[in-house]
Amino acid sequence: MESLTSTELDTSKYAVQVDINNVSKDEIQPYIKLQRATNFLAGAMIFLKSNILLRNKLSFDDIKPRLLGHWGTCPAINLIYAHCTRLIKSRQLNMILVTGPGHGAPANLANLYIEGSLGKFYPEYGWSEEGLFNLIRGFSWPGGFPSHTNSELPGQIHEGGELGYALAVSFGAALDSPDLIVTCIVGDGEAETGPTATAWHAIKYLDPSTSGAVLPILNLNGFKISERTIYGCMSDDELVALFTGYGYQCRIVGDDLENIQQDMASSLEWAHDTIRKIQKAARSGQAIYKPRWPMLILRSPKGWTGPKEAHGQRIEGTFHAHQVPLPAAKKDDEELGILEKWLKSYKPEELFSEDYTPKQDLLDVFPDDSLKMGMRKETYGNYHPLSLAEWQDFSVKQEEDASPMKQAGKYLADVIKRNPEAFRIFCPDEMMSNKLDTVFDVSERVFEWDKDVFGKKGRILEILSEHTCQGMMQGYTLTGRTALFPSYEAFLGIVTTMVIQYAKFVKMGKETTWRPDIASLNYIETSTLWRQEHNGFSHQVPGFINSLINLKADMVRIYLPPDANCMISTLHHCLQSKNYVNLMISSKHPTSVWLTPEEADRHCRAGVSIWRKYSSNEGAHPHVILVGCGVETTFEVLAAAALLRKDCPRLRVRVVNVTDLMVLGFNHPHALSRTEFASIFGTHQPIIFNFHGYPSVIKDLTYDRHSVPGRLHVHGYKEEGTTTTPFHMLTANGCSRFDIAIDALQRVAPNDDVDINVHELVTEYRHRIKEHSKYIEECGQDPADLNERPSFSE
Amino acid sequence: MESLTSTELDTSKYAVQVDINNVSKDEIQPYIKLQRATNFLAGAMIFLKSNILLRNKLSFDDIKPRLLGHWGTCPAINLIYAHCTRLIKSRQLNMILVTGPGHGAPANLANLYIEGSLGKFYPEYGWSEEGLFNLIRGFSWPGGFPSHTNSELPGQIHEGGELGYALAVSFGAALDSPDLIVTCIVGDGEAETGPTATAWHAIKYLDPSTSGAVLPILNLNGFKISERTIYGCMSDDELVALFTGYGYQCRIVGDDLENIQQDMASSLEWAHDTIRKIQKAARSGQAIYKPRWPMLILRSPKGWTGPKEAHGQRIEGTFHAHQVPLPAAKKDDEELGILEKWLKSYKPEELFSEDYTPKQDLLDVFPDDSLKMGMRKETYGNYHPLSLAEWQDFSVKQEEDASPMKQAGKYLADVIKRNPEAFRIFCPDEMMSNKLDTVFDVSERVFEWDKDVFGKKGRILEILSEHTCQGMMQGYTLTGRTALFPSYEAFLGIVTTMVIQYAKFVKMGKETTWRPDIASLNYIETSTLWRQEHNGFSHQVPGFINSLINLKADMVRIYLPPDANCMISTLHHCLQSKNYVNLMISSKHPTSVWLTPEEADRHCRAGVSIWRKYSSNEGAHPHVILVGCGVETTFEVLAAAALLRKDCPRLRVRVVNVTDLMVLGFNHPHALSRTEFASIFGTHQPIIFNFHGYPSVIKDLTYDRHSVPGRLHVHGYKEEGTTTTPFHMLTANGCSRFDIAIDALQRVAPNDDVDINVHELVTEYRHRIKEHSKYIEECGQDPADLNERPSFSE
After folding, report:
1. Are residues B403 and B374 in the same domain?
2. Does the structure's ipTM exceed the value 0.90?
3. Which residues of A211-247 are buried (b: 16+ CB within 10 A; e: fewer)?
4. Which of A555, A585, A615 is the last residue of a domain?
5. For residue A620, which phi and psi values (nearest 5 degrees)?
């Protein structure tokens, strides 16, 4: 094998050939005109604040003072939008569009305006002079639509910000929507991201009998912001090899720019025919194993139809077309002239009537409202609440030890049974390891490439890509269904910025009048750091909490249920909650059940409470307040309380558990009032807080509770760990029962009525830590008695 | 085109054929024996605490109380390690190994033990009874080597924790090391991650004339933790298509398990021959455009050679081999029996002498020490400090406005010129946009697939994958060189968990005796939220700071230089610092230069100082302390100080700037002492802190400074934003000069000697905010005077 260069590759036999004359030139004329209109509008939006249809000679005064927006990607979005519209109308399809290059909002807005979707949701953007003025002048103007797509735009289910997630989101939207086609535009910049690079594999998780289809269109214009793109530098043969390997059939459109319109129309028909064949086979019981789904690769010049050049510098087809192609149009005569010539080249007078309304022939190209991409019900108002049992049916007795995750798995199996089409679990292959495996009693995994489960309609999708799990969950949730993402605690942070983008999307959606409720995003973090003593330091990362607490308070809920009953109660609550990001953190290991189902119900509703039965004096008039938050850290707090009860019976110890972290905050909807806070956390006593994660979380939340700093002492993870034993993890980070007890003893004010020899006890506890450490080093495990439920008998 | 199924794919012409008899059976026998030894050791490490060579009958007492470790991936790592060793020895190669499946540490440890690398760095792991006992019993035992590879293991440059990054790290290591081959094992679990999926493209950035090679070996054992893998379910044809599309030539090894050893040996020789051809061509001036680099795909059963089954359940070749294949070996007779039979099948008596030392024939298979993969100098002690000019040569005059990034770009161009082989910039195509473009005066980009820069040896690598940038920077840095990663502020958080993994790697490396200094990881965040008013809400994310401050204090440095001089000074400092993670945050827009070069030098060394010339009364005896941290927020603080100076001249305002965030902390090496803190931040006056990012950062850092809570009022980003104007961004988040001035006025204790009508001024400032907002809505831009340098003339 001597071939050493990719230029010798020949994969032509796998490149799809389409007869572009399948669609006649006449048929597509109206859609070419639509693109003239949308390209015009996109250009006008970026530049004009008056004289919006160029009925007068363009002057500097007509130009916006700040030129914002991304032109480069707009013409391709307009091309795709137009031809999708044609296909929808001619074949009466249910289709939505996910725009990866969301920076090209002017294109989306232009289409949404002409199809009437903007006007439907925003009367001020109707077909009128005022509406058109609002669109053009208002774009990227303070108070108007932003420069990137977001939830304020009808039809959107994807934030047009951070790149990489459009494809996974599209697959999530298609799941369990058998009649839906999700067209997804992926730019060649976005295609370089890791999340996109692996999301191409997601067809392998799509069951054509019960789910819809995703039609990816990879748009190659060759440039990112200023550098060439990887995909833009790949030959047709390389592209065909790659995407054939991913499992697609690919059709390359645009190599012949002259015929690109006919080609796009015919290629879309081919793609739809192919989707139908795959679906028909599956739905008639003849499912094809490893069906090759269609995709299009669209080569089009960056900023196509835009200004060709300025100051002797090429613009169209180069990175100079990326953002504002004529940045000096407000002060440079040459650029102003080019701008005018360019915008006039679309002949606005043929596009808009005298009264500024779009010409009738532009409106006629669209299907009925219900099929317009900006009005598809999947993209708003499609929420299907789950049918759920009472959580108490899955509760456990207080006397038993139970694994919170094992119990959660039983509950989830029931959720799956009750909601066969509106609930999914996305997980990076950690369901078994996380002890949630009871779900497999009622459902297979979904993975169409695996012959053993092919066609079996599983509800659990396990791909080792947190990005894909997250993207799919977003797409699934934003189209009205409910999902759960269980993860190792250490690795959920992989999707940190995705969650932030999602939260921004939802925040703006809430500020519209027309986006109704959706389900919350639901996360379980388990296999937490305190029990990752076996996988070691790399698996000990509780930082996802820190990222969430900076989001808008009304969106974020963080729960740390301390036992199995609280876990199921919390899960039950989260799965029916709306519009939040819910993070649940608990253990997969069997552990004490502290509360009866009734007590757990009350405790979880309150979010925090004094655990009287584990406190001395029922928690009244405490000398010190011990707070547990998290499974293992609460266990240690209870063990410390038991120790102190035995060793200094006159010390009054109040035990508090926080299960809803946000009660601690100050401005959160769940925040305790001052009075409530004082009734639980006292006003002057030392508070020894044993927290599951980084102490910074507790410091941040309680900062503005001015009675607290100075008396609050937070123990938590301080980045100490390795492969060791659970107890050693606790002592290494100062979170063991002895550390808590020592801190409590040292903080309690000298007080006759307590009557303890602090020094002696502290020495004794330090000694016990050492003894335990010695045992651990010798025996390779923790002394068994450390796992025993602490005894509170007097 | 009727073909609808991937099963019809035929890409055999692109699959590499190798005559496996190129290497004789005899030649490889010693390396098969080496695998017997390493497989034995890996198995023994997971299970045994005594009777380590099974010289007595195995009993429950010999079994560790906690069985930890991942067996499934070990045999394949051992196969690869053995055959790489053979190739290194026979061809005298410089090769290092990056192990993606780092969970398989027993395999790496076994090889490092026998090759003598463990003993070199850790005398207690020598070739002796004690050394062998320490290895086997000590594995995953408290105090011993952890269950996953980390920096405690010789030869490692990659944390064996979170999956996805091995490949990008390998490419980073190969850059500018022309004689080095980095063999990278990628597991089929890891291959599903996005970061890996796009890192395959990294060959397109490798210049064969000046950089080394990466030899990826994709190991398919078919299973992740418990689910089948995507790649494991792909046919040879699909795999060949995919990786041919990525640009590789691929050789599939292992389809015939009988001949896998000869196949591996011959295929590695083919791979090395191919690498040499590509390099030779390039180094003789005949560079091949788009060379197809070699890769191997190794199919091997999960847990190969391990226990076949137990309790009637298949283990070898299934997910049951993933972790501990016989989990009940300490108490179940059947499992104990299987374990004994299994471990004895490797014939330990033939592997180790009576005195427990490895038999000589095992030692003889290795090359000289300098070529052993555990002793390669690239993996430790290879640090090349940069040659740097004085930063003052690039400073600007205080009277001028200057863009901190523009100036940084000039400085960086000089760094590139001075260090043509030991400095690289990795960036997701944001160099131009971030105004660092002066570097292009002295260097091209590197991108071998782009004909325009092919072979031009550029120093700036721009791929739109933050994961790839980060992975490459890690590999480059850990092999002794220095790199910089400039990014939009909003998107650096994409690599949050990667940085955490890296920090864990470095922390443990510092705790060894033998890992010397390396350069710091250096980040620039610019295009910050306050000036992402044009890209909108999605581009406004300052949360990366929050993730870093939870890392070990002695590793993290966060700087927010307030002007161009401070920026260059900081950059100069960071590029020569060692072992840290440095985050620099500053603006790309022209802004006031507040400090002369001399002042900037002093200020940056101190990290924080009172800016006497912008304070009233030279900052002495203040009524209120205004603190700026960040470019725009500092500008507003100065504007507020100027306002107050004019409107209430008797109010004494101290202006402080924090450029080194960590001075605020309590336990950080840079932390101010109590006295220093009081001398700057006072003891009782209100502190109005205008912070660049989320207020939680400041709250966390100052929490334990007990004089502070209650008088510190932090302004910062509170997740309000859209496409708007810079000033509106400030007012929406309460960070404008008026917000700061109002807060100051309202917090100052009533005081005769100040003599101001607070109510009147507050009303006036609120009115001005409204007036400005009105202007912004009408005119689409900020009033020009808001950008003027505040005047401090009396």
Report:
1. no
2. yes
3. bbbbbbbbbbbbbbbbbbbbbbbbebbbbbbbbbbbb
4. A585
5. -80, 150
For B152, nearest residue in chain A (alpha carbons): A722
- pLDDT tens digits for range B290-340: 999 999 999 999 999 999 999 999 999 999 999 999 999 999 999 999 999
Chain A: closest CA distance from residue B551 (Å): 7
CA atoms within 13 A on the CB side of B281: 18
Interface contact A791, partner B, CB < 8 A: no
Q: Is residue B404 in a domain?
A: yes
Q: Would you call B16 an interface residue with chain A, using a CB distance cutoff of 8 Å?
A: yes
Is B247 touching A (CB cutoff 8 A)?
A: yes
Both B42 and B119 in one domain: the answer is: yes
Could you say which of A192, A537, A538 has the minimum Cβ distance to residue B465? A192
- CATH (domain of A752): 3.40.50.920
Q: Is residue A209 in a domain?
A: yes
Q: Which of A4, A277, A700 sits opposite B292 (nearest CB)?
A: A4
A399 with A343, same domain? no
Contacts of A431 in chain B (CB under 8 A): 226
> Nearest C-alpha of chain B: how many angstroms from A481?
24
Q: What is the residue range of B515's domain?
A: 391-585
The answer to whether A450 contacts chain B (CB < 8 Å) is yes
**Domain count across chain B:** 3
pLDDT higher than threshold 90 for residue A110: yes
Cα B348 to Cα B58: distance, rounded to the nearest angstrom: 14
Test mutation, A550, A556, A668, A714, chain B, max B CBs within 10 A: A550
Last residue of a domain, one of A345, A379, A413: A379
User: For residue A234, which residues of chain B lie inside 8 Å, CB to CB?
Assistant: 245, 449
When pLDDT is averaged across residues A574-590 and rounded to a whole number, the result is 98
C-alpha B771: how far from its chain's center?
47
Torsion sign over Cα A762, A763, A766, A771 = negative
Do B577 and B719 reside in the same domain of the chain? Answer: no
- For B161, which of A204, A538, A780 is closest by C-beta distance? A538
Q: Do B241 and A241 touch (CB under 8 A)?
A: yes
Q: Which of B703, B713, B725, B782 to mutate to probe the A interface, most A CBs <10 Å?
A: B703
Express each pLDDT in B414-459 by its tens digit: 999 999 999 999 999 999 999 999 999 999 999 999 999 999 999 9
Backbone angles phi, psi at A57, to 5 degrees: -65, 135
Examine the domain organization and report whether B633 and B667 are in the same domain.
Answer: yes
Q: What is the pLDDT of residues A166-203, one digit of tens each?
A: 999 999 999 999 999 999 999 999 999 999 999 999 99
Same domain, B741 and B782: yes
Q: Is residue A602 part of a domain?
A: no
Residue B501 belongs to a domain: yes
Here the CATH number for the domain that contains residue B558 is 3.40.50.970
Same structural domain for residues B310 and B445? Answer: no
User: Which of A508, A694, A722 is opposite residue B146, by nearest beta carbon?
Assistant: A722
The long-range contacts involving A752-761, CB below 8 angstroms and separated by at least 24 positions, are A753/A650, A754/A623, A754/A648, A754/A650, A754/A651, A755/A648, A755/A650, A756/A647, A756/A648, A756/A650, A756/A651, A761/A647, A761/A648
pLDDT at B3: 45
Do A375 and A395 belong together in one domain? no
Per-residue tokens: A426 = 């996305």
